[in-house]
Amino acid sequence: MTQRLTDPGSSPDPEPSPSPADSAPFNEQVAYELQKRTLKMAHAPGKTTGECPKGLSSKEGTKATCTTTYEGLKVQWKVTVGDKAAWSFSGDYVTFDATPSTGIITRDGVARLLFGNFSPEYVLCNNIPKATLAPLNVASKYSCEPVYKGDKPHGYGTPVRATEDGPRSY
Description:
Elements: E1 3-5, H1 26-42, E2 48-51, E3 63-70, E4 73-84, E5 94-100, E6 103-106, H2 107-118, E7 122-125, E8 131-134, E9 139-147, E10 158-163, E11 166-169
């Protein structure tokens, strides 16, 4: 493993910008929420876009495919609109499920995960790009080894996985 990662700092709480107005069409509201989920998956700030079909209905059972990008990487989301939320004060809030077609792994996201969970002196990886697409919830071709103060690297790492909640290493 030849890539040495340093601590990128505290975990970001990125939000896409700008957020749609409260009166924006339903498709724009869903696209914005999917951009937030894409940033969560990357676990690193970055430029995102989002698009859902114009005229996307908020009617229960409606299905659509929406697309987000993170730093130019495209993720398609299968969206199914649910029923109106029981706790909604306005009666306009509906639920939806969305499943991404692929995951995203970012170098900063992996570093943030490993430094945040293990507090190593540094981390060695096998050349994770700044951002890349990766299958969801399976071991990727990338692996990392946290190295603690006073220890020497062992030369093998733990596989990194892309999940909807950010990178994982196990």
